[in-house]
Amino acid sequence: MHLIQSYGLFPCITQWVIQFLGVSCYDFLNYGTPPPELSAEAIKDALIKHEIYKDLGYVNYPKHMLQVNYEVHHLQLGTRVPDYLAIIPPDGINYTHYDKLGHYALLVVGLDVPTREKPSHRSYRHMTLANIPEDRFLSAECLVKYEWMDAPYEIGLHRVVFLLFKQEGEKPIVYDESSLKRREIDKLRSNFSAIKFSSKYNLGDPVAVNFFFTQIDENHIEEH
Q: 67: helix, coil or strand?
């Protein structure tokens, strides 16, 4: 798995990692062997059971599971991740079914904003990477850096979803997301529609997915 986390400080900038930490883009963290990939039918069943696609608006289910780990927690479509780990970027993301010369986009979104029962601000965009060459996630263009603490979650159990899309063609595409450069970025993260984003850039349906649950407690609310 490719190293993603930069000690939680600025996860989307590969150059920062190289310059200040002196590590390679392809360093590995040894947190054990990832669980075996689930079948397409098992992926579909999990997405239906936990109403992931129902709440996102997609109808065509992906055949593959994106490999994601937060330290020892290898996500397997509903893994519980402690909130103290969820606030920092995942240690590794990997996609083994990539097309040679293909480019991909990754969305990480929280569905239950502020709660699953009353998701009035669905969804919250935690991170967006674009123009990922093959499976080299650290070579991606960062549109939105990983952020958690400002998410307007309320106390309860929350679903966070990783969605991987294949871009059209074999060359990088231009993402018109200039509004995300403004200081109001944190406000723009809420009320985000993954399906509108993927439609805008002709990304189609996700080719791979994963998700986890995390419990938000009083400490997060107080810090927010």
A: strand
